[in-house]
């Protein structure tokens, strides 16, 4: 009866927690309000596995308490960024309970964007008046109606997420990321010179549409004094910049692979706090519809978006030890 006693089996890992814990955090600075709406998945590992093996629950911090802890720490600590709040949660569980060996928090931010009124004369005034300090300018923006003080619009450009994991006696490991960032360009992309065999039907393309939905996830090489907001925005802007190229001319992409690598390289060049970055760029195909049979010349004006299949290109780039970029 070896299996009943469990002598011949061991756990590879265990973890439990609450998923999709939702919070809307409002920072009220006078009339000016800022928000972060988040969804968190929290997972803990405990030192003994008796709740699994014998059903003894004395060590189990109920998942309901885990949910309440997310709510309570939002109140007690505030939510500056999803990364900082995830770090606070990991630290809380590890310092409050000696029998918690590991805490992991995955958090997504709901993409709310402050309402902005683009008023051309007011915008022009901002640019000329450089003597204003930043905070004065912010105040002015808020009072003259360019940025709304407390109203937001759901703006699904991309979803920001983070993943923080901490083992007892170790430093936390922080990943940040973005997903579902859909971008498209109508030229300055091609794919030529690829390997051919008897099954190849793809024609070389000098000029094609390039559409992808970017997923990027990067690891920080430090935890303290990181500007999580600034780095996140820089990674997003760098990926967009490499995809699109200069605003007038664009930049030629010889393959999704090359664009993916170039954007990762530029991220590591610009952001010393990023140690490693994974990017996934599905190649979402658009085919020019053949209209010759209906007597029309379609010069890449009418295209058919294909739901599937899509190509899938991915890569993870990291710094070599001691490399200077
Ligand atoms: O940029 C591309 N990379 C590929 O690997 C590939 N394969 C394919 O059919 N089209 C493309 N495009």
From TrEMBL:
One of its GO terms (molecular function) is urate oxidase activity. The active site is at 18 (charge relay system), 63 (charge relay system), 285 (charge relay system). It is an enzyme of class 1 (oxidoreductase). Belongs to the uricase family. This is Uricase. Urate binds at residues 63-64, 191, 208, 256-257, 283. O2 binds at residues 63, 283. The keyword Oxidoreductase applies. Its main location: other. One of its GO terms (cellular component) is peroxisome. Pathway: Purine metabolism; urate degradation; (S)-allantoin from urate: step 1/3. It is found in: Peroxisome. Keywords: Oxidoreductase, Peroxisome, Purine metabolism.
């Amino acid at each position: 009866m070896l299996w009943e006693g469990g002598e011949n089996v061991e756990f590879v890992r265990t973890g439990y927690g609450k998923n999709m814990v939702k919070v809307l955090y409002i920072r009220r600075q006078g009339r000016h309000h800022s928000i972060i709406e988040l969804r968190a998945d929290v997972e803990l590992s405990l030192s003994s596995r008796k709740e699994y093996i014998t059903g003894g629950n004395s060590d189990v911090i109920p998942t309901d308490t885990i949910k309440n802890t997310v709510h309570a720490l939002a109140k007690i600590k505030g939510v500056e960024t999803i990364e900082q709040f995830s770090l606070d949660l990991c630290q809380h569980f590890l310092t409050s309970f000696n029998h918690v060996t590991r805490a992991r928090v995955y958090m997504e931010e709901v993409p709310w964007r402050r309402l902005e009124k683009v008023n051309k004369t007011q915008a022009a005034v901002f640019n000329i008046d450089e003597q204003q300090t930043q905070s004065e300018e912010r105040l002015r923006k808020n009072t003259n109606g360019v940025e709304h003080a407390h109203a937001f619009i759901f703006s699904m450009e991309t979803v920001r997420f983070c993943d923080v994991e901490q083992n007892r006696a170790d430093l936390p490991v922080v990943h940040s990321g973005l997903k579902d960032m859909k971008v498209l360009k109508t030229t300055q992309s091609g794919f030529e010179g690829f390997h051919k065999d008897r099954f190849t039907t793809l024609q070389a393309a000098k000029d094609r549409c390039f559409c992808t939905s970017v997923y990027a996830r990067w690891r920080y090489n430090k935890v303290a004094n990181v500007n999580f907001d600034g780095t996140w925005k820089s990674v997003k802007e760098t990926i967009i910049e490499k995809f699109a190229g200069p605003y007038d001319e664009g930049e030629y992409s010889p393959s999704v692979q090359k664009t993916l690598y170039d954007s990762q390289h530029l991220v590591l060049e610009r952001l010393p706090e990023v140690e490693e970055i994974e990017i996934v760029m599905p190649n979402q195909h658009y085919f020019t519809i053949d209209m010759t049979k209906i007597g029309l010349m379609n010069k890449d004006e009418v295209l058919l978006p294909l739901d599937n299949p899509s190509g899938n290109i991915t890569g993870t780039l990291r710094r070599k030890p001691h490399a200077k970029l």
